[in-house]
């Protein structure tokens, strides 16, 4: 449990992590309930990437810009599309999509 907490907190510094090219494997719109906000939509993007012969590693990232933008963004990101992934050195299983992926939507 403590290791999972560290992995999550370490993503705050992901902008310093190395990058790799990955590939989108799934795109979904999820409806979640946020306390005080009610139901909101978020875009869930699953991906995979390899580091040389090591991998594939997988990950999932979420984006919550507002319901209308989520629905539009879902149409613009496609399965098989190349994406930039940031991974923690020494433990690539801890990874996330590079922020530029979201900015380009």
What's the quick description here?
With 105 residues, this protein is of the alpha+beta class. The protein has one domain: OB fold (Dihydrolipoamide Acetyltransferase, E2P) (Beta Barrel). The chain is 23% helix and 51% strand.
Describe the structure.
By secondary structure, this protein is an alpha+beta fold. It has a single domain (2-103), classed as Beta Barrel (OB fold (Dihydrolipoamide Acetyltransferase, E2P)). The protein contains three helices and five strands. The chain has helices spanning 2-10, 67-76, 99-103, and strands at 19-34, 38-51, 54-63, 82-88, 91-97. It has a five-stranded antiparallel sheet with strand order 3-2-1-4-5. Strand 1 (19-34) and strand 2 form a beta hairpin. The longest helix has 10 residues, at 67-76. It is globular. The model has no long low-confidence stretch (mean pLDDT 89).
